Amino acid sequence: MRFVHTADWQLGMTRHFLAGDAQPRYSAARRDAVAGLGALAKETGAEFVVVAGDVFEDNQLAPEVISQSLEAMRTIGIPVYLLPGNHDPLDAASVYTSALFTAECPDNVVVLDTAGVHQVRPGLEIVAAPWRSKRPTTDLTAAVLEGLPADGTVRILVAHGGVDALDPDPGNPALIGLAGLQDALSRGAIHYVALGDKHSRTQVGTTGRIWYSGSPEVTNFDDIESDPGHVLVVDIDEADGSVHVDSRHVGRWRFLTLHRQLDTGRDVTDLDINLDQLPDKERTVVQLALTGSLSVTDRAALDVCLDRYSRLFAWLGTWKRHTHLVVVPADGEFSDLGIGGFAADAVEELVAAARGSDTGAADDAHAALALLLRLVDRGVA
């Protein structure tokens, strides 16, 4: 028996930094990743798809987001089991009980809206632990695993949330207990645990049977999500219960963080080369952590570089709390501009201000000197 394990689609997600047509393209890519599961299912012979929580970004969504998402699920063409998670819990405002969802939900889509066992077919069951609020007060898997028999039925636990062995907040009452999962696996009550909530592909424990699939399309920068963009194709031998997990990369977007020390014009040139060599710029988001000390000339070159690539990438900008660039006019940097009189005196005053301790005045002076350099370079001054 073979199925696809995925999670954290978060359809309807927006990223505040994406402007222009980048956000619609990113949203379309997230839907395309869902619709593309149909081709993967056909290629691999998968019997069904389980989505381990956070199918939607929120319970309050624009009608077109719901309709387009359901259409993407319809095209998968095999049963798709949706588990409500912390972003889209089964509360009073649940998207899953909305009039639009219930009216347009395709026949192949099943919401795992009750805790416990859901039969896929004789001999094969899904054990679901849906969220009914954004803040559960207990381990939701413990209740559905309690008393579950080891009777030869192949069972897949589908759950959402942090696992106590990995989570840095041991006081969270909703954490999933790894010991309980491993006990249910060892006694044969369940055979695989499909988890959602962690957006990077992650194996939990050492059994090879407990996995976070991660989000099929990246949702955050790589300092937070180290391994997104995957779905898992899972094989369970119904004769002996053995499990094999095959990871497939399906994501097309990248959110990158680049740390660079910039102290010379050569460093700026190297950054330019690095950015130029990145492929698929229209689907790449770049966050720059820049530190160092630059001359006004080199800072002006950096500004030109960043301006150019901000028009090529889906988004490019600085990570403000990790960026600290000092601009200090180099000796003689403004001595050969070919100007004199009051203009030369003004330049000297700007250089002095740029080297001063008044941060606001220094920033204004840097900007004025950089503009002067650009004007001179263009033959305007």
TrEMBL record:
CDD domains: MPP_Mre11_N (cd00840)
GO MF term set: exonuclease activity
Keywords, comma-separated and alphabetical: Exonuclease, Hydrolase, Nuclease
InterPro entries xrefs: Calcineurin-like_PHP (IPR004843), DNA_Repair-Maintenance_Comp (IPR050535), Metallo-depent_PP-like (IPR029052), Mre11_N (IPR041796), UCP033093_metalloPase (IPR014577)
SUPFAM superfamilies, sorted: Metallo-dependent phosphatases (SSF56300)
Domain named Calcineurin-like phosphoesterase: residues: 1-163
Family: Belongs to the SbcD family.
Protein name listed in UniProt: Nuclease SbcCD subunit D
Organism: Mycolicibacter hiberniae
